[in-house]
Design goal:
- The chain is mostly helical and 70 residues long.
- It has one domain.
- Helices cover 54% and strands 0% of the residues.
- The protein contains three helices and no strands.
- The two termini are 33 Å apart.
Length: 70
C-alpha cells in the first residue's frame, strides 16, 4: 500500500473528500490533530503555569537539562 499526502485548498476540501470516498480502493485517514477546544485548554494551562513560575510557586527544569535527557 502506498501513502500520498496532499495539500488541498479549504474551499475545495469537501469536494475532494467526497470524490475520494467514491473510489473503493482509497482509504481516507482524517487528520487527528487537536480540536480548537483542546488547543485553548492547553494554552490556558501553559499561561497558568507561566504565571506560577513567575511568582516563584512552580519549579521548572532548565532547557539544557531537558535537552540532555533526550
Amino acid at each position: 500500500m502506498k501513502r500520498v499526502v496532499l495539500n488541498i485548498e479549504n474551499s475545495k476540501y469537501n469536494f475532494f473528500i467526497e470524490l475520494m470516498r467514491s473510489l473503493d480502493f482509497v482509504h481516507i485517514e482524517e487528520d487527528s490533530g487537536d480540536s480548537k477546544e483542546e488547543i485553548v485548554a492547553n494554552l490556558t494551562q501553559a499561561f497558568k503555569d507561566l504565571k506560577l513560575y513567575k511568582e516563584g510557586k512552580l519549579k521548572t527544569t532548565p532547557a539544557q537539562e531537558f535537552l540532555n535527557e533526550l
